[in-house]
Task: structure prediction
Amino acid sequence: MLKARIFAIAAGLFALVAGLSAAGAADLVGVPVPWSFDLQPAASPTMERIRDLNVLLNIIIIAITIFIAGLMAYICFKFSVKRHPDPSRTTHNTLLEVVWTVVPIIILVVIAIPSFKLLYFADRTPDAEMTLKATGHQWYWEYTYQDAGLKDVKEGAEVNFESVIACRGDGSAADTKGCDEFEAKHGRKPVRLLDTDTQIVLPVDTNIRLLITAAPEGVLHAWALPAAGVKLDAVPGRINETWMRISKPGIYFGQCSELCGKDHGFMPITVKMVPKAEYAEWVRGKLTAANRGREKSTAQNKGSGKKSTQVARTK
Result:
Protein backbone atom coordinates (compact mmCIF):
# COMPACT_ATOMS: atom_id res chain seq x y z
CA MET A 1 0.00 0.00 0.00
CA LEU A 2 2.79 2.38 0.95
CA LYS A 3 4.66 1.54 -2.26
CA ALA A 4 1.56 2.31 -4.34
CA ARG A 5 1.14 5.68 -2.62
CA ILE A 6 4.78 6.60 -3.18
CA PHE A 7 4.51 5.59 -6.83
CA ALA A 8 1.34 7.67 -7.27
CA ILE A 9 2.92 10.75 -5.63
CA ALA A 10 6.05 10.47 -7.78
CA ALA A 11 3.94 10.02 -10.93
CA GLY A 12 1.91 13.09 -10.01
CA LEU A 13 5.03 15.21 -9.52
CA PHE A 14 6.43 14.13 -12.88
CA ALA A 15 3.07 14.82 -14.56
CA LEU A 16 2.97 18.28 -12.96
CA VAL A 17 6.45 19.11 -14.21
CA ALA A 18 5.58 17.81 -17.68
CA GLY A 19 2.40 19.89 -17.70
CA LEU A 20 4.31 23.02 -16.77
CA SER A 21 6.90 22.24 -19.43
CA ALA A 22 4.21 21.91 -22.10
CA ALA A 23 2.45 25.16 -21.17
CA GLY A 24 2.14 27.60 -24.05
CA ALA A 25 2.41 24.87 -26.69
CA ALA A 26 -1.06 23.34 -26.54
CA ASP A 27 -1.18 21.92 -30.07
CA LEU A 28 2.56 21.81 -30.79
CA VAL A 29 4.04 18.86 -28.95
CA GLY A 30 7.81 18.63 -28.76
CA VAL A 31 8.56 22.35 -28.99
CA PRO A 32 11.41 23.42 -26.68
CA VAL A 33 10.14 25.33 -23.62
CA PRO A 34 12.39 27.40 -21.31
CA TRP A 35 13.23 25.69 -18.01
CA SER A 36 11.63 22.44 -19.04
CA PHE A 37 12.90 19.00 -18.15
CA ASP A 38 11.55 15.45 -17.89
CA LEU A 39 10.13 13.49 -20.81
CA GLN A 40 7.62 14.92 -23.24
CA PRO A 41 3.92 14.48 -22.35
CA ALA A 42 2.78 10.98 -23.28
CA ALA A 43 0.64 10.88 -26.43
CA SER A 44 0.52 7.12 -27.00
CA PRO A 45 0.12 3.91 -24.97
CA THR A 46 3.80 3.13 -25.53
CA MET A 47 4.93 6.50 -24.20
CA GLU A 48 2.64 6.12 -21.17
CA ARG A 49 4.41 2.88 -20.31
CA ILE A 50 7.81 4.49 -20.89
CA ARG A 51 6.90 7.26 -18.44
CA ASP A 52 5.71 4.72 -15.87
CA LEU A 53 8.97 2.82 -16.19
CA ASN A 54 10.88 6.09 -15.90
CA VAL A 55 9.06 6.89 -12.63
CA LEU A 56 9.80 3.40 -11.25
CA LEU A 57 13.50 3.69 -12.18
CA ASN A 58 13.74 7.12 -10.56
CA ILE A 59 12.19 5.78 -7.34
CA ILE A 60 14.73 2.94 -7.27
CA ILE A 61 17.65 5.25 -8.12
CA ILE A 62 16.69 7.83 -5.47
CA ALA A 63 16.19 5.12 -2.83
CA ILE A 64 19.62 3.59 -3.59
CA THR A 65 21.29 7.01 -3.58
CA ILE A 66 19.75 7.98 -0.22
CA PHE A 67 20.69 4.61 1.29
CA ILE A 68 24.30 4.74 0.08
CA ALA A 69 24.74 8.40 1.07
CA GLY A 70 23.28 7.72 4.50
CA LEU A 71 25.47 4.63 4.94
CA MET A 72 28.59 6.55 3.97
CA ALA A 73 27.69 9.40 6.35
CA TYR A 74 27.12 6.90 9.18
CA ILE A 75 30.45 5.18 8.49
CA CYS A 76 32.33 8.50 8.41
CA PHE A 77 30.75 9.55 11.72
CA LYS A 78 30.73 6.22 13.59
CA PHE A 79 34.15 4.96 12.57
CA SER A 80 36.18 8.14 12.52
CA VAL A 81 39.64 8.07 14.12
CA LYS A 82 38.41 9.94 17.20
CA ARG A 83 35.46 7.63 17.89
CA HIS A 84 37.04 4.37 16.73
CA PRO A 85 40.83 4.55 17.11
CA ASP A 86 41.28 0.77 16.99
CA PRO A 87 39.65 -0.55 13.77
CA SER A 88 38.30 -4.09 13.73
CA ARG A 89 39.67 -6.62 11.27
CA THR A 90 36.55 -8.45 10.14
CA THR A 91 37.29 -10.39 6.95
CA HIS A 92 34.10 -12.39 6.37
CA ASN A 93 30.44 -12.00 7.15
CA THR A 94 28.23 -14.59 5.50
CA LEU A 95 24.94 -12.80 6.09
CA LEU A 96 26.28 -9.50 4.76
CA GLU A 97 27.73 -11.15 1.65
CA VAL A 98 24.45 -12.94 0.93
CA VAL A 99 22.49 -9.69 1.35
CA TRP A 100 24.67 -7.59 -0.94
CA THR A 101 24.45 -10.33 -3.58
CA VAL A 102 20.74 -11.13 -3.37
CA VAL A 103 19.39 -7.57 -3.01
CA PRO A 104 20.96 -6.28 -6.30
CA ILE A 105 19.59 -9.37 -8.07
CA ILE A 106 16.09 -8.61 -6.77
CA ILE A 107 16.42 -4.97 -7.87
CA LEU A 108 17.49 -6.05 -11.37
CA VAL A 109 14.56 -8.46 -11.62
CA VAL A 110 12.15 -5.70 -10.54
CA ILE A 111 13.58 -3.53 -13.33
CA ALA A 112 13.79 -6.30 -15.94
CA ILE A 113 10.18 -7.51 -15.79
CA PRO A 114 8.50 -4.19 -16.78
CA SER A 115 11.38 -3.49 -19.21
CA PHE A 116 10.82 -6.71 -21.16
CA LYS A 117 7.05 -6.20 -21.11
CA LEU A 118 7.54 -2.71 -22.54
CA LEU A 119 9.92 -3.92 -25.27
CA TYR A 120 7.42 -6.59 -26.30
CA PHE A 121 4.51 -4.11 -26.27
CA ALA A 122 6.38 -1.50 -28.36
CA ASP A 123 7.70 -4.00 -30.90
CA ARG A 124 4.66 -4.30 -33.18
CA THR A 125 0.88 -4.54 -33.21
CA PRO A 126 -1.06 -7.45 -34.72
CA ASP A 127 -4.07 -5.18 -35.26
CA ALA A 128 -2.60 -2.52 -37.56
CA GLU A 129 -5.25 -0.40 -39.30
CA MET A 130 -2.86 1.33 -41.71
CA THR A 131 0.82 1.30 -42.72
CA LEU A 132 3.24 4.18 -43.09
CA LYS A 133 6.73 3.64 -44.49
CA ALA A 134 9.49 6.15 -43.71
CA THR A 135 12.69 6.12 -45.76
CA GLY A 136 15.71 8.13 -44.66
CA HIS A 137 17.76 9.91 -47.33
CA GLN A 138 20.68 12.33 -47.14
CA TRP A 139 19.21 14.47 -45.60
CA TYR A 140 15.43 14.31 -45.70
CA TRP A 141 12.61 11.82 -45.19
CA GLU A 142 10.40 10.15 -47.77
CA TYR A 143 7.00 8.76 -46.76
CA THR A 144 4.79 6.17 -48.42
CA TYR A 145 1.28 5.32 -47.25
CA GLN A 146 1.36 1.70 -48.35
CA ASP A 147 -2.00 1.05 -46.72
CA ALA A 148 -4.00 4.21 -46.14
CA GLY A 149 -6.49 2.42 -43.91
CA LEU A 150 -9.56 3.46 -45.94
CA LYS A 151 -11.97 0.79 -47.21
CA ASP A 152 -13.09 2.81 -50.22
CA VAL A 153 -9.52 3.39 -51.44
CA LYS A 154 -8.42 1.00 -54.18
CA GLU A 155 -5.94 -1.62 -52.98
CA GLY A 156 -2.42 -0.77 -54.10
CA ALA A 157 -3.07 2.97 -54.21
CA GLU A 158 -0.24 4.80 -52.46
CA VAL A 159 0.40 8.33 -51.28
CA ASN A 160 4.07 9.19 -51.55
CA PHE A 161 5.93 12.42 -50.79
CA GLU A 162 9.22 13.82 -49.57
CA SER A 163 9.46 15.90 -46.40
CA VAL A 164 12.22 18.50 -46.14
CA ILE A 165 12.97 21.01 -43.40
CA ALA A 166 10.82 24.13 -43.92
CA CYS A 167 13.66 26.56 -43.26
CA ARG A 168 16.93 26.50 -41.37
CA GLY A 169 16.96 30.11 -40.23
CA ASP A 170 20.35 30.79 -41.79
CA GLY A 171 19.21 34.08 -43.36
CA SER A 172 19.82 33.08 -46.98
CA ALA A 173 17.39 34.22 -49.68
CA ALA A 174 16.16 30.68 -50.40
CA ASP A 175 15.75 29.95 -46.70
CA THR A 176 13.86 33.18 -46.07
CA LYS A 177 11.56 32.33 -48.97
CA GLY A 178 10.91 28.91 -47.43
CA CYS A 179 10.06 30.50 -44.06
CA ASP A 180 7.69 33.00 -45.72
CA GLU A 181 5.95 30.29 -47.74
CA PHE A 182 5.47 28.17 -44.62
CA GLU A 183 4.04 31.10 -42.65
CA ALA A 184 1.66 31.98 -45.49
CA LYS A 185 0.46 28.36 -45.72
CA HIS A 186 0.09 27.55 -42.01
CA GLY A 187 -0.54 30.96 -40.46
CA ARG A 188 2.34 30.72 -38.00
CA LYS A 189 6.10 30.97 -38.00
CA PRO A 190 7.92 27.66 -38.43
CA VAL A 191 9.41 26.10 -35.32
CA ARG A 192 13.16 26.33 -35.76
CA LEU A 193 14.68 23.08 -37.03
CA LEU A 194 11.45 21.14 -36.37
CA ASP A 195 8.89 22.12 -39.00
CA THR A 196 8.88 20.54 -42.47
CA ASP A 197 7.55 21.74 -45.80
CA THR A 198 5.18 18.75 -45.97
CA GLN A 199 3.61 17.28 -42.84
CA ILE A 200 2.75 13.66 -42.23
CA VAL A 201 -1.03 13.54 -41.76
CA LEU A 202 -2.37 10.63 -39.68
CA PRO A 203 -5.70 9.78 -38.05
CA VAL A 204 -6.18 9.76 -34.28
CA ASP A 205 -7.24 6.61 -32.40
CA THR A 206 -5.71 4.37 -35.07
CA ASN A 207 -3.15 1.59 -34.77
CA ILE A 208 -0.47 2.69 -37.23
CA ARG A 209 2.20 0.26 -38.39
CA LEU A 210 5.52 2.06 -39.00
CA LEU A 211 8.08 0.60 -41.40
CA ILE A 212 11.42 2.36 -41.07
CA THR A 213 14.28 2.03 -43.55
CA ALA A 214 16.96 4.04 -45.35
CA ALA A 215 17.87 4.47 -49.00
CA PRO A 216 20.16 1.68 -50.27
CA GLU A 217 22.87 4.18 -51.22
CA GLY A 218 22.44 6.11 -47.95
CA VAL A 219 23.60 5.91 -44.35
CA LEU A 220 22.07 5.07 -40.97
CA HIS A 221 19.28 7.31 -39.68
CA ALA A 222 16.77 6.98 -36.83
CA TRP A 223 13.10 7.97 -36.97
CA ALA A 224 12.15 9.39 -33.59
CA LEU A 225 8.88 10.86 -32.31
CA PRO A 226 9.36 11.26 -28.54
CA ALA A 227 5.74 12.04 -27.61
CA ALA A 228 4.67 8.74 -29.22
CA GLY A 229 7.50 6.78 -27.62
CA VAL A 230 8.96 5.87 -31.02
CA LYS A 231 12.66 5.75 -31.88
CA LEU A 232 13.81 3.20 -34.44
CA ASP A 233 16.92 2.93 -36.61
CA ALA A 234 16.60 3.36 -40.37
CA VAL A 235 19.12 0.93 -41.87
CA PRO A 236 19.91 0.72 -45.61
CA GLY A 237 18.65 -2.56 -47.04
CA ARG A 238 16.63 -3.44 -43.93
CA ILE A 239 13.07 -2.64 -42.82
CA ASN A 240 12.44 -2.23 -39.09
CA GLU A 241 8.92 -2.26 -37.72
CA THR A 242 7.15 -0.62 -34.80
CA TRP A 243 3.78 1.03 -34.20
CA MET A 244 2.02 3.94 -32.55
CA ARG A 245 -1.45 5.12 -31.63
CA ILE A 246 -2.10 8.77 -30.76
CA SER A 247 -5.47 9.89 -29.40
CA LYS A 248 -5.10 13.67 -29.22
CA PRO A 249 -5.17 15.82 -32.40
CA GLY A 250 -2.25 18.19 -32.79
CA ILE A 251 1.18 18.62 -34.35
CA TYR A 252 3.97 16.41 -33.01
CA PHE A 253 7.65 16.99 -33.65
CA GLY A 254 10.58 14.64 -33.87
CA GLN A 255 14.05 14.48 -35.43
CA CYS A 256 16.56 12.08 -36.88
CA SER A 257 18.28 10.62 -33.82
CA GLU A 258 21.28 8.94 -35.42
CA LEU A 259 24.37 10.88 -36.45
CA CYS A 260 24.15 10.64 -40.23
CA GLY A 261 26.42 13.30 -41.68
CA LYS A 262 26.72 17.02 -42.18
CA ASP A 263 22.98 17.77 -42.27
CA HIS A 264 21.94 15.43 -39.46
CA GLY A 265 20.48 18.37 -37.54
CA PHE A 266 18.25 19.32 -40.48
CA MET A 267 16.11 16.15 -40.71
CA PRO A 268 13.02 17.04 -38.66
CA ILE A 269 9.82 15.02 -38.47
CA THR A 270 6.41 16.73 -38.33
CA VAL A 271 3.30 14.64 -37.71
CA LYS A 272 -0.16 16.20 -37.84
CA MET A 273 -2.78 14.09 -36.06
CA VAL A 274 -6.31 14.83 -37.26
CA PRO A 275 -9.80 13.30 -36.85
CA LYS A 276 -10.46 10.28 -39.04
CA ALA A 277 -12.88 12.13 -41.32
CA GLU A 278 -10.35 14.87 -42.00
CA TYR A 279 -7.64 12.27 -42.65
CA ALA A 280 -9.87 10.42 -45.15
CA GLU A 281 -10.52 13.68 -46.99
CA TRP A 282 -6.77 14.43 -47.07
CA VAL A 283 -5.90 10.99 -48.49
CA ARG A 284 -8.57 11.20 -51.19
CA GLY A 285 -7.32 14.67 -52.14
CA LYS A 286 -3.75 13.42 -52.45
CA LEU A 287 -4.80 10.42 -54.56
CA THR A 288 -6.94 12.62 -56.80
CA ALA A 289 -4.06 15.04 -57.32
CA ALA A 290 -1.71 12.15 -58.09
CA ASN A 291 -4.16 10.65 -60.59
CA ARG A 292 -4.55 13.97 -62.37
CA GLY A 293 -0.79 14.33 -62.58
CA ARG A 294 -0.46 10.80 -63.96
CA GLU A 295 -3.20 11.37 -66.54
CA LYS A 296 -1.57 14.62 -67.64
CA SER A 297 1.81 12.91 -67.96
CA THR A 298 0.26 10.02 -69.91
CA ALA A 299 -1.40 12.42 -72.32
CA GLN A 300 1.86 14.31 -72.84
CA ASN A 301 3.78 11.08 -73.40
CA LYS A 302 1.21 9.82 -75.88
CA GLY A 303 1.57 13.04 -77.81
CA SER A 304 5.32 12.61 -77.90
CA GLY A 305 5.17 8.86 -78.52
CA LYS A 306 6.80 7.95 -75.21
CA LYS A 307 5.62 5.45 -72.61
CA SER A 308 4.50 6.82 -69.25
CA THR A 309 6.79 5.90 -66.39
CA GLN A 310 5.58 8.42 -63.84
CA VAL A 311 5.06 7.21 -60.28
CA ALA A 312 2.11 8.69 -58.41
CA ARG A 313 3.72 11.20 -56.08
CA THR A 314 2.37 14.20 -54.25
CA LYS A 315 3.79 17.22 -52.56
Observations:
- Residues 47 and 229 are 4 Å apart (CA to CA).
